[in-house]
Amino acid sequence: MTADASNWTLLLPTLIGGLVLGYLFGSIPSGLILSRLAGFGDIRKIGSGNIGATNVLRTGNKKLAAATLLADALKGTIPILIAWQWGFEPALAAAFGAFLGHCFPVWLGFKGGKGVATFFGILLPLSWPTLIAAAAIWIGTAWFTRYSSLAALLTSALTPVILFVSGQTLLAELFLAVTFILWYRHRENLRRLLNGTESKIGQK
Length: 204
Prior knowledge:
Layout: H1 3-26, H2 30-37, H3 53-56, H4 62-83, H5 88-103, H6 116-126, H7 128-145, H8 148-165, H9 169-185, H10 187-195
Helix pairs in contact: 1-4, 1-5, 2-4, 4-5, 4-6, 5-6, 5-9, 6-7, 7-8, 8-9
GO cellular component, one term: plasma membrane
Subcellular location: Cell membrane
Protein name: Glycerol-3-phosphate acyltransferase
């Protein structure tokens, strides 16, 4: 067995462990749980039917939406910090697993959130300077256009570019994959943006 093959054999269990750990954290339906605890019932029955913070905001409860946003971000951050004890590559696997878990949770028939908060949550421990740039892009776009979905699409598209330009190639590749998933989850939003029927921030 070659040295490279030996290293891969040793790394594979931690990669799988990171991926599974991330998925389990990411698949926790924060918005659904918090909305039910707050007495709003099944958040999937109002607004867009999504379990993320943007739809939770449609309940009119800003604190609940903020709590959902934080929880969705942390379920991306926490498994990365845990998996990082096994190495950088397992941390990347945990990041990808967390994003997959949020978007496609097995407990909800693989119908989860759209990934924006978790996108920022996995970016925080992996490259916080890029997080600041991404947050600025999101805030600026959302402020001027009032479209949360457009802000998410633009931010996710530019993040891999920022990472690549700054020499963080592995992270750029990870976030390119994550961006494809985020755009897929926003495909209906993209269609509404193109035909001018997308809801703006604050609209029911």
